[in-house]
Amino acid sequence: MSNSEWTELAVVETAEPEESAAPVAPQPVLAVVGRPNVGKSTLVNRIIGRRQAVVEDIPGVTRDRVAYDAQWAGRRFTVVDTGGWEPDAKDRAAAIAAQAEAAVALADVVLFVVDSTVGATDVDEKAVRMLRRSSKPVLLVANKADNNAMEHEAHALWGLGLGQPWPVSALHGRGSGDLLDAVLEAFPKEAPRETFAAGPRGPRRVALVGRPNVGKSSLLNRLANEERSVVDAVAGTTVDPVDSLVVIGGETWQFVDTAGLRKRVGKASGTEYFASLRTAAAIEAAEVTVVLLDSSEVISEQDQRLLSMVTEAGRGVVLAFNKWDLVDADRRHYLDKEIERELKRIPWALRVNISAKTGRAVEKIAPALHTALTSWEKRIPTGQLNQWLTALVQATPHPVRGGRAPRILFATQPGVAPPKFVLFTTAPLDPGYIRFVERKLREEFGFDGSPIDISVKPRKEKGPGGRGKTHG
Ligand code: GDP
Ligand code: GDP
Fold first, then answer.
1. Gap between the Cα atoms of 114 and 251, Å rounded
2. Pocket of ligand 2, candidates 1, 208, 209, 213: which has the most ligand atoms within 8 Å of its Cβ, to mutate?
3. What's the rounded Cα separation, in Å, for the pair 256 and 243?
4. Global confidence as pTM
5. How far apart are CA 106 and CA 410, in angstroms?
6. Domains of the chain in sequence order
7. Does residue 89 surpass a pLDDT of 50?
8. Among protein residues, the one whose CA lies closest to atom 20 of ligand 1
9. Ligand 2: does its nearest atom lie under 6 Å from the Cβ of 268?
10. For 257-307, how does the pLDDT look when each residue is reduced to its tens digit (9 = 90+)?
11. 96 confidence band (pLDDT: 50, 70, 90)
């Protein structure tokens, strides 16, 4: 095929920069601990700027730890409220200490709240001993310092040995700004921003991959010819010359590393090794992938390897079953079986049945890419995530292991592209349970077309021996 068809192509004048989603850096965690009634919940509401906690207190229902999104001076973080957490422990003091310990183990910074109108109690002092053993930065909050006189009283709390008390009135807001400044100081240094979605966005980057002869060149040509619109430049962006800019449905997409495909219809590709290196690089450079399969042939090991590459790279997937014109009822029957068997690892991948040759359903590719990208960049607010998770684990708790069931304390989504979730737990979770959580997470929130990453952060066992109880 001559190159001429690639030269008479329309030039796109401007690309509308889309609203770029704010990059989500991993959020540090702030735990708020202290005795009941010292004002933890009031302080948390003050920090998250809300009058009402998201999770309501329902009489008779034990409220577990809850986490919220917060922001101060442009920095986002997660606040974990330990208020209202009252386990069925006989020894109340021990229970409170355990509660504090759990929160401390998973936090980056701890706010230890004391009621300055009461002063330090025995329970406070017990908690302090644990806090001092931990290596976590602790800020001592002298709450209910509603006026100057009370602020003065707060100085008595120096005696707890946690350093400077921060006089605060959670109720009125007094002192809370200074406290939050100190919290930000104590957080780990801000992680570098994620590379994607930074700055004004050019065309979305797509990798069109598939083993030789599945129809990649044909599809690219079809997409380009149908729209008569492979373009060479988009104002304000630099595009690698090996990439193709293709307008589909009035929108420009950047197909990564397609130089070979442009010229190559029908010709055999380079060595497989070289081809796979290039494919890996293209996937890495892309935000979303079209993985082309030949529906007239058995799903092969090579197809599987490609799919693994894509999902391990954390990219969105649209599976395009090409050559659909060759699929008859008989083949359809076997293909369905193959899909069930071979693609069960990625039930979330989007599927389109197309024919590059006839043009069948190729118009469905762009909407599928959008769905995958939306999922890929989706973020669930921490409050919503935890409300849902609390209900989930209540309905279906983790199975008991060695006499105990690991518990999920709370979850956050520290990243997007692809979505990353962290479950903070009392102990490691069964892989089966993690899969269950993923399945339910997808059922509830979507994420079609995108891989998601769930990691588990079990609370660290204390003591040098690992699991032994420390004596007190
Ligand atoms: P928690 O059990 O530690 O979560 O405590 P709460 O946040 O539920 O507060 C317990 C009580 O203390 C409530 O009646 C609050 O209104 C009150 N309170 C909280 N913060 C302050 C404060 O800064 N000043 C005063 N005067 N009362 C407060
Ligand atoms: P590539 O190696 O993945 O770029 O595949 P090509 O685009 O070169 O296609 C390989 C062969 O499959 C060529 O002979 C194409 O004409 C043929 N082909 C591509 N798409 C289709 C299709 O949808 N239906 C049929 N019947 N043949 C196709």
1. 58
2. 213
3. 5
4. 0.64
5. 10
6. 29-186 (3.40.50.300), 204-375 (3.40.50.300), 382-470 (3.30.300.20)
7. no
8. 39
9. no
10. 876 676 544 444 455 555 667 788 889 889 999 999 999 999 999 999 999
11. low
